Amino acid sequence: MTRTRSLSFAAFLLVTTSAWADDAIVKLPATPMPSAGPTTAAATEFCGDASGKAEDLIARYSTKAGLLQVYTSELYTAFSDDPKNATVMYTFTTKNNPAYPAAVCRKVVHEGDALTVQMKVVCDGKKEACDKLQNDFNVMTAKMQAEVDQQIAAGKK
């Protein structure tokens, strides 16, 4: 029951935090970038599927059967496998986003007794814009993971 609630909570967070990347309220100090930046070459898979160029991923997942559009703005469009209990969320930049083209996949994964939020980014835009996109999504994913961990810990008490 706790895992189900935690998974539902994680799904809710995946859906509701897509727009936060540009929201001044959630801006945190920049975190160091991983040594392998957000490039097609660095992404060997995209949430369990074959990777590719960001434009190809956008075309593939924005029309994939079983995915529903759950968010859209001037800068992002997001799709999920289930808007109420998502296990995977795909977020794509629009042509108005400086990081375009870019695709982000966030997936809730069971690892033993823990739920983790894994993320893959493929960004073929300008390096500076891709670095910012990667950082913004790192921050959102870290916040989501902390909230999931707190929810699970609260359920164990």
Task: Describe the protein.
Helix 1 (2-16) packs antiparallel against helix 3 (127-156). 34% of the residues lie in helices and 25% in strands. The chain has 157 residues and is of the alpha+beta class. It has helices at 2-16, 54-62, 127-156, and strands at residues 45-46, 49-50, 68-72, 76-80, 88-93, 102-111, 114-123. Mean pLDDT is 78; it is low at 5-28 and 31-43. It is built from three helices and seven strands. The longest helix is centred in the last third of the chain and has 30 residues, at 127-156. The two termini are 14 Å apart. It is globular. Strands 3-4-5-6-7 form a five-stranded antiparallel beta sheet. Strands 1-2 form a two-stranded antiparallel ribbon.
Structure in a nutshell:
Helix content is 34%, strand content 25%.
Descriptive key words:
34% helix, 25% strand, 3 helices, alpha+beta
Write the layout of secondary structure elements.
Layout: H1 2-16, E1 45-46, E2 49-50, H2 54-62, E3 68-72, E4 76-80, E5 88-93, E6 102-111, E7 114-123, H3 127-156
Shape: globular
User: Proportion of β residues?
Assistant: 25-35%
Structural class: alpha+beta
Biggest pleated-sheet summary: 5 strands, antiparallel
Order of helices and strands: HEEHEEEEEH
Number of helices: 3
Low-confidence stretches: 5-28, 31-43
Total strand segments: 7
Oligomer: single chain
The average pLDDT value, as a whole number, equals: 78
Termini gap: 14 Å
